[in-house]
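Supplementary Methods. Inverse-folding protocol.

Structures were first reduced to a discrete structure-token string of length 90. This string, shown here, constituted the complete conditioning input.
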């Protein structure tokens, strides 16, 4: 079951990240999605460098790094907490 949920989650994350469409078309009420999406921060920094030739803000990149580290720590904690039952769910 987790495999199916993971596939759905990654598909939603892909569509919520403006990769193939500009971020400007996201409605004003839905801007929080790109604000809290760590993938958008990385895409934004890459677009600034490669497409626009400008330097990016450090804020989005720092957010992506901190959220990545936090998610890794949470994953490690959950793995050690449930490692006896982990094999039953994978």
């Amino acid at each position: 079951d987790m495999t199916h949920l993971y596939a759905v989650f990654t598909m939603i994350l892909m569509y919520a990240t403006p990769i193939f469409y500009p971020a400007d078309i996201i409605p004003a009420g839905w801007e929080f999605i790109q604000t809290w999406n760590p993938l958008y921060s990385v895409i934004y920094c890459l677009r600034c460098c490669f497409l626009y030739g400008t330097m990016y803000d450090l804020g989005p990149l720092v957010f992506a790094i901190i959220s990545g580290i936090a998610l890794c720590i949470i994953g490690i904690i959950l793995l050690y907490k449930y490692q006896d039952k982990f094999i039953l769910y994978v």
